[in-house]
Amino acid sequence: MDWCRYRFRSVWQLAAPPDAVYAVLERAEEYPRWWPQVREVVPVDELTGTARFRSLLPYDLVVTAEALRRDPVARVLEVSLRGDLEGWARWTLTSRGPGTRAVYEQEVEVTSPLMRRLAVPGRPVFRANHALMMRAGRRGLAARLAGADQGATSRPRPGDSGPV
Asked: What does residue 163 show for φ and ψ, rounded to 5 degrees?
């Protein structure tokens, strides 16, 4: 087993239609407005951007994401990742009654030297950290889709001194 490789899968049930969910998810530069652990997204060009994440652990991960697939008909968004994590991530959206089933999949290898050194003892903590981030993301997206986040873009976050 390669202790520095991770495969994640999260399934979110959302009360909004798939096209509305896709419209929010395709605007990655706006994730910090509704996903607390996505601290910053800086577009580089139309297909690429740099993102900074921090969940419960006091450690930032920085990745450059490049769009591999943007398919509003199939409702699939996929990016390649490089930086502190190397690999890919994908959203796949399907109709579920009046709402949406959003599946997030990610396969990455940790390249951050600190996280690689802590790979074996830290693995359960890293996985739990990711799970917390995903739960907060689902709540934030649901609130965004419901319109509950109006005016929330400028609220400060504890421990975050940089721009969001």
From this structure: -70, 150
